[in-house]
Design goal:
single chain, 213 residues, alpha/beta, six-stranded mixed beta sheet, protease, thiol protease, Ubiquitin-like protease family profile domain-containing protein
Length: 213
């Protein structure tokens, strides 16, 4: 599986113009759909304009991530919701977003599905903007993006109010490794203290290596 993770592109969902106006946009889209008698998505995410950094990343012109998205099976996008971090595993060809939330509080699945719906509009617009669908010979209207929450019976859950970032980082390690066993058997809240120590050690060691060069 070719998976691309760029921590620099951590979407602040709560600060996007799309999020502040999403209800108005969805209402207008529904009205247009009823008038046109169609049910395909429209690429009008509230005048969203991707930054130059994001465009370089998606097209493979980022020095750290030189592979364009059309060569990827999936991408990992850390998303910051109000007061909480979640991880979105975007399966590009399938048009699906898998939501990894370390605070799945309602019936075992995340109640933040609506909070990341802006991403479902931004992704197809961004892919269309950089020519992804043309490169992949895909119809952008054929399969709109959907979101699925990963069940808490599979992914470890935090029992405090401040470890979401550490859980997210561990999720990003396990996804590319294609771990098949329940992740609760790999790590959990009891391991977070040691994981934090490991992160601190990695930062120190890599910092020393950079300084020596």
């Amino acid at each position: 599986m070719q998976t691309n993770l760029n921590i620099k592109w951590a979407i602040e969902i709560d600060t996007l113009d799309a999020m502040r106006n999403i209800a108005k946009f969805e209402k207008a889209k529904e009205e247009r759909r009823q008038q046109k008698k169609t049910d395909y998505p429209e690429f009008v995410p509230l005048n969203y304009q991707p930054s130059a950094d994001i465009l370089r990343h998606v097209t493979g012109h980022d020095l750290l991530y030189p592979e364009p998205w059309w060569r990827m099976d999936s991408v990992l996008i850390p998303c910051h919701l109000p007061g909480h971090w979640v991880l979105c595993h975007v399966l590009l060809k399938e048009g699906k977003v898998l939501l990894f939330d370390s605070l799945n509080e309602r019936e075992g699945t995340s109640h933040r599905l609506k909070e990341i719906r802006a991403l479902l509009y931004l992704l197809p617009y961004l892919l269309k903007h950089v020519g992804y669908y043309e490169e992949m010979k895909m119809d952008p209207h054929a399969s709109p993006f959907t979101v699925q929450s990963m069940h808490c019976e599979f992914i470890p859950q935090q029992h405090d109010g401040y470890s979401c970032g550490v859980f997210l980082m561990k999720y990003t390690e396990l996804i590319p490794a294609e771990v098949k066993t329940p992740w609760k058997e790999v790590f959990g809240q009891k391991d977070i203290k040691d994981i934090r120590k490991g992160i601190a050690l990695d930062i120190y060691v890599n910092g020393q290596l950079c300084n020596s060069q």
